[in-house]
Amino acid sequence: MRRLSVLLLVVSGFGPWAGAREVAVTGVAGRSWLNQLNRDFAETSMGKTGHLGPAPADESSRWQMGLTTSATDAVSLRGADLYRLNCQSCHGETGQGAPPEINSVINPVRATSVAMVMERMKTTGMNMSHADANKMAEQSKDALLQRLHNGGQDMPAFPHLDDAEVHALIAYLKQLSGLPGAEHEQTSVKESPMRVGEHIVKSTCHICHAAYGVNPSPQQIAEGAIPPLSALTGRVTLPQFVRKVTAGAPIVMGEPAAACRGRMPVFYYLSQDEAADVYLYLTLYPPYKFAALDPAGPVRAADRGAVDGASISAASLGSDTEPPSTPPAAQDQTLEMSVAPSLGFGLFLTLLLAGGFTFTVRECMRLSAVAEGLSPARTLRVNDATLQTENVQEDQRLIA
Asked: What pLDDT score does 58 carry?
């Protein structure tokens, strides 16, 4: 099985994938985007461009998982693919979004074209010079990149996209918006399966699913709770996960627990390989609570004694046992235990140095006073008297 081979390769230390670019892959962290916006799942269009899943009575028993790509080969992603993985869950296949909540990407992209800016101004009865149109188009390009990198009021940021990916994505957005000559700008990037999974998780899954949390009960799910990403690989096996994402499957909820249709959309535009890449990514890069604990790489047996090739392989084959890993809570405790003594020692050393410096200054003053036959207190009084005399003389001079 493809993902089993990939898991074994990563845990064994082999890689990178043949032909893939050297791009840092990091785990997902923090609250879901809907949670950050204080928006309820039932009251939003975000992340809902997929189809409604099947009801339990309509569930087909003929579904089969069929992964096609090689375990060690890089995947070539075009701008259209990057749009599918990062943007389509909110903006839709055509880029029109779901106004008024989700804006269309078409007009902002068209505003980056000098020809289209001049054409639009002409249709409104206003003439614009080529220089002014070019300046306006450049401003639109900057605004588009700013929104992509930093997000907006309702749109999340996409800091995981690098320059090559942004270039390919923008080129496709131009083609989607009908800009002249955009078909000649299309490019592609070579990505590892891990990177594909990262795109989907951070741009699609993380809209509704928090990165880390407690696995909800069937009753809590019926009341609207959404399972965190950290619990997904423990809740379902790889085949169950792929089926849920690409074809839909009932979910157990309520009290007493029963199979129900569920609320999660079916992302028909994701392939089985891409859904399996998500499972692989979540297994090797376990989600965590805070971005400050961003791991440097995939979980390896040498780094975490609780994770070994056998346990991860069992997860990829469909075992119901959750791959053991160090929970983020334990990481938090470890960090606190290691940082607290360091801070205490640093504070102690600072106070010690400050005290020593003060003592040295006072001792020098005392020895200097003794050498001149005066006590430290007397020296201070003499200095004060001298200063007062100088001040009186200065006042008298100013009065005169």
From this structure: 65
Tally Cβ neighbours within 10 Å of residue 86: 21
Please name which of 366, 363, 286 lies closest in space to residue 331, comparing C-alpha atoms: 286
Phi, psi (degrees; rounded to nearest 5) at 100: -90, -5
The number of angstroms, rounded, from the C-alpha of 162 to the middle of its chain's C-alpha atoms is 13
Is the omega angle on the peptide bond into residue 16 within 30 degrees of 0, that is, cis? yes
CB 268 within 8 A of CB 262: no
Phi, psi of 285 (to 5 degrees): -125, 75
Distances 183 to 158, 177, 178 between C-alpha atoms, Å: 24, 11, 9
Give the Å distances, CA to CA, from 317 to 55, 280, 381: 26, 11, 87
pLDDT at 37: 94
| Domain boundaries, given as residue ranges, for the chain | 333-399
Position 315 scores a pLDDT of 40
Which stretches of the chain drop beneath a pLDDT of 70?
1-18, 58-61, 69-72, 291-400
* Per-residue pLDDT at 317: 42
**The predicted structure's pLDDT at residue 354:** 57
Give 260's strand partners. Answer: 251
Q: Quick one: pLDDT at residue 352? A: 53
Query: 200-212, pLDDT tens digit by residue?
Result: 999 999 999 999 9
Tell me the CA distances in angstroms from 273 to 58, 135, 263, 335, one per residue in order: 24, 43, 23, 36
CA 322, CA 231: separation in Å to the nearest integer?
A: 9
**Residue closest to 233 by CA, chosen among 332, 299, 329, 304:** 299
Q: Is the pTM of this model over 0.85?
A: no
CB-count exposure of residue 328 (10 Å: 0-12, 13-18, 19+) = buried
Q: Which two tokens stand for residue 353?
A: 């140095």
Q: Alpha-carbon distance 381 to 385, whole Å?
A: 6
CA distance 362 to 22: 60
C-alpha 77/C-alpha 15 separation (Å) is 19
Instruction: Give the start-end residues of each E strand in 160-220.
Output: 188-191
DSSP state for residue 93 in the 8-state scheme: T
pLDDT of res. 262: 83
Q: What is the pLDDT of residues 114-127, one digit of tens each?
A: 999 998 888 888 88
Q: Which of 86, 38, 35, 27 is nearest to 290 (CA)?
A: 27
